[in-house]
Hints:
Chain A contains 14 helices and ten strands.
Amino acid sequence: MTVSLADIREAAERIEGLVHRTSVLTSEKLNELTNAELFFKCEHLQKVGAFKARGAVNAVYSLDDNVIKQGVATHSSGNHGAALARAASLRGVPAFIVVPNNAKQVKKEAIVGYGAEIVSCEPTLKARESALEEVVEKTGATFIHPYDDDRIIAGQGTAALELVDQVPDLEAVIAPIGGGGLLAGCCVVAQEKGISVYGAEPDGADDAYRSLKSGEHVTSHVPDTICDGLLTTIGVRNLEIIRGVVDDILLTPDADTVKAMELIWTRMKQVVEPSSAIVLAAVLNNPELFRNRRIGLILTGGNVDPANLPFSGC
Amino acid sequence: MTVSLADIREAAERIEGLVHRTSVLTSEKLNELTNAELFFKCEHLQKVGAFKARGAVNAVYSLDDNVIKQGVATHSSGNHGAALARAASLRGVPAFIVVPNNAKQVKKEAIVGYGAEIVSCEPTLKARESALEEVVEKTGATFIHPYDDDRIIAGQGTAALELVDQVPDLEAVIAPIGGGGLLAGCCVVAQEKGISVYGAEPDGADDAYRSLKSGEHVTSHVPDTICDGLLTTIGVRNLEIIRGVVDDILLTPDADTVKAMELIWTRMKQVVEPSSAIVLAAVLNNPELFRNRRIGLILTGGNVDPANLPFSGC
């Protein structure tokens, strides 16, 4: 493995005070419903509204003074872009975020709000990569990949490290899988702590599942899921870490994710996005696997548009 | 006053362990937006999803063994019914809840879920009162009024007592006003602690405002507001306590309450109902009054139907 528990411990020290140590919530009703003891790690209450704040701060604060002064760059229309912008702003260095020109205005505003510079490009992989290359060349900024990066993986892993500290005798942890930064971090912690670890993946974006089952890295896939935080393909480092450690990837239909999201909203009164709620759907869909166990579920983010919700009637 | 700080302290001891000591949340973004320091007391994360759990437990546990064994009764299609049902179930005594026959199925299920008996009646004040009288006569149960009751007021006041304990140097507290149980409890605490206290009331259900301004108890009014927890008329005891103590009742249009609700959802990721969000709307509408002050806001409940939300597009 390219990331060790020591790396995650170092990351935890590095980011302390710069991100929230998020709460863990429980719900008697959801425990009854699942016949398990569920512990929800509230990363939707994290800075920038997502666990991505952890990896971004760890990456930015890992770099030497003479490197970081040139700034950092990435491509992201989502939370990583905002998280990196925030981390750079905290350290007082520039950030350059390549954003496709069809990205939502609210996402762009979040990035600009943290003082970063947006580099607009056509919404294709090629345009994104060449825009990023250009800005890195021009500015000398360090490229921080959204997930296929050891500093990012170590940073995201701090969520799991906190969770096992906050919940004694935890038996398993479940995290959503998109690019695999968070799940890889969870795998490192879970292996060292001797607990089980599961990924929850939309059945319409099952590249990680297929990569693990086939032994080949599935890199071309056309995702079709409501979980807009889980569209990305699993990264090389991420797959390497997850393989052999993860107990299983639990494929989950969107309809079940929406039901789980409604349960979290109505029972726990927490606004989470589908990409978060998928972890509860995975528990509900696998009752025998989780019965009577103490399970940690990472609620990764809560960035939803209240005017456009997937519940019936909305 | 019929309720003292000592009564609220006693209530706090009585209900300890039977209700949650709820968290206090803060939001940098909402502080920036309001130029104030806001501390949100999370009663939407309380048992039964509302502060009503406090008063109900205090009332049920205040009664002598030989009285309480006959059970308790009330009329409520809302959270007080569920809260009283739960409190009675905890003490192992029967509860009889008079519910209009047009009440929502989900509300009835909550009450039945706590083992209470539902007494159905026509949706008129007269039918409700005679059904209640009948059940009290038949069973010997003690009637616990939803708000016009000293035990209820003392119980609800424990939310404010906790808040001033959790937030050092709090300067003011704002609570929504419906029947006035919570605001009366807040007034007792605020007066003793020497802090300001405000009620937030929908401008379409302004009976408390008019009662205070006119000096006469306005008892007949036809409320028109999205805040379905604030439809009731202020109680006699409640008005008596609030008068002379409350700094002001801040009337708030529903449109502003909906905007505040969206802010709490998107910025704090908390599912609150309009009757809760009105407290933030009151701050936003009175920027000079609250500027640079440390303000406690009581989020009273989070019982909303995700399929029927007031946001545009839904």
